[in-house]
């Protein structure tokens, strides 16, 4: 396939960015989207031009690094698919493809298509953990957990932290991400120690990072590549209300 790419180029955080047109030729339909970008960068290097910066790591749909906005959709046109698992057969010969980074105040652009998602890391550091006393601690699989609860916690734990929910939300809200992390631990016995402080601290950090409010549009869940459910936001709201009702923090 021969394609026209309209790629966002931005030298650094402080620079003014713009869309630049590129042509790529003889693209195999079996290539992944990132492999297609590799071909583009090889062409640019041969021409003595600077390659396009973009984030990637595992290229197996696990790490969540491949955060690209493709033709106006997070991770591209294929539902339930990360950018690295999106194949070029989803496009046609002669197509024009617009490629942009995530657009959110809390995700500043580092360079070109690469964004800084460390805000998610700071939210996790604020409360996304459990206490473990070393010594005679029973194995996790020795604690009886109903299968329905275990399955629900596992589904929440599949969040890969890619940020598609933020990119798809008109408010740049991180509620789906935070709710998945809170639900994952609040549902399990191991997560009960920090249950109240966790939800308070993580929401406070989310607000501090500059993410927007949730207005229940549902675009986050619709674009999530691993299918995180909106039910987790309901769980998050319940956890937060319960924590504030008995909290010493009156802020």
From TrEMBL:
Q: Which NCBIfam families match?
A: PRK07570.1
Q: Which domain of life is it from?
A: Bacteria
Q: Which SUPFAM superfamilies match?
A: 2Fe-2S ferredoxin-like, alpha-helical ferredoxin
Q: Which InterPro entries match?
A: 2Fe-2S_ferredoxin-like_sf, 2Fe2S_fd_BS, 4Fe4S_Fe-S-bd, Beta-grasp_dom_sf, Helical_ferredxn, SDH/FRD_Iron-Sulfur, Succ_DH/fum_Rdtase_N
| Family statement | Belongs to the succinate dehydrogenase/fumarate reductase iron-sulfur protein family.
Q: Which cofactor does it need?
A: [2Fe-2S] cluster; [3Fe-4S] cluster
Offer an example of a GO molecular function term for this protein.
2 iron, 2 sulfur cluster binding
Name of the molecule in the record: Succinate dehydrogenase/fumarate reductase iron-sulfur subunit
Q: What GO biological process, any one, is recorded here?
A: aerobic respiration
Question: Residue limits of the 4Fe-4S ferredoxin-type domain?
Answer: 150-180
């Amino acid at each position: 396939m021969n394609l026209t790419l309209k790629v966002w180029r931005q030298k650094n955080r402080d620079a003014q960015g713009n869309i630049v047109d590129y042509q790529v030729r003889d693209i195999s339909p079996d290539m992944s989207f990132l492999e297609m970008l590799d071909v583009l960068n090889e062409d640019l290097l041969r021409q003595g031009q600077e390659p396009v910066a973009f984030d990637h790591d595992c290229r197996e749909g696990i790490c969540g690094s491949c955060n690209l906005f493709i033709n106006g959709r997070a991770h591209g046109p294929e539902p339930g698919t990360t950018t690295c698992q999106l194949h070029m057969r989803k496009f046609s010969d002669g197509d024009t493809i617009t490629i942009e980074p995530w657009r959110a105040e809390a995700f500043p652009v580092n360079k070109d298509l690469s964004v800084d998602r460390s805000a998610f890391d700071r939210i996790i550091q604020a409360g996304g953990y459990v206490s473990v006393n070393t010594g005679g601690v029973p194995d996790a699989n020795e604690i009886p957990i109903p299968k329905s609860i275990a399955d629900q916690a596992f589904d929440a734990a599949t969040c890969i932290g890619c940020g598609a929910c933020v990119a798809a939300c008109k408010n740049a809200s991180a509620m789906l991400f935070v709710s998945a992390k809170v639900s994952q631990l609040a549902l399990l016995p191991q997560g009960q120690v920090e249950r109240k402080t966790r939800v308070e601290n993580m929401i406070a950090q989310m607000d501090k990072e500059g993410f927007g409010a949730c207005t229940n549009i549902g675009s986050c869940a619709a674009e999530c590549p691993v299918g995180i459910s909106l039910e987790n936001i309901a769980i998050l709201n319940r956890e937060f209300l319960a924590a504030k009702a008995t909290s010493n923090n009156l802020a």
